[in-house]
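Thread: "does anyone have the structure for this chain?"

Original post by V.I.:
We have the sequence but no experimental structure in hand. Need at least a predicted one for the grant figures.
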Amino acid sequence: MENAGVGWVAAIIIGGIAGWLAEKFMNSNMGLLMNIILGVVGAIVANAILSGLGIVLAGWLGYLVAGFVGACLLIAVGRVIRR
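Reply from O.Q.:
Generated one for you, tokens below.
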């Protein structure tokens, strides 16, 4: 998160928004806390994957995009594991 130039409070807010967007996009039903967790962890996962590919997303918009993509990936993986 420090590489993205986003502080902890902003990361929680942006993570919540990213998790909520992913929840709506993936048609899942989760609560506010899970949205925040998915958004923040999703951003960390997506940033790690993208940085391995040489793509760097910075700032709050980059964190939002990474959080959304990562949260969607985590929801998809969770669905595969549950089946």
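V.I.: this helps a lot. The first helix runs from residue 8 to 25.
O.Q.: and The two ends are 32 Å apart (CA to CA).
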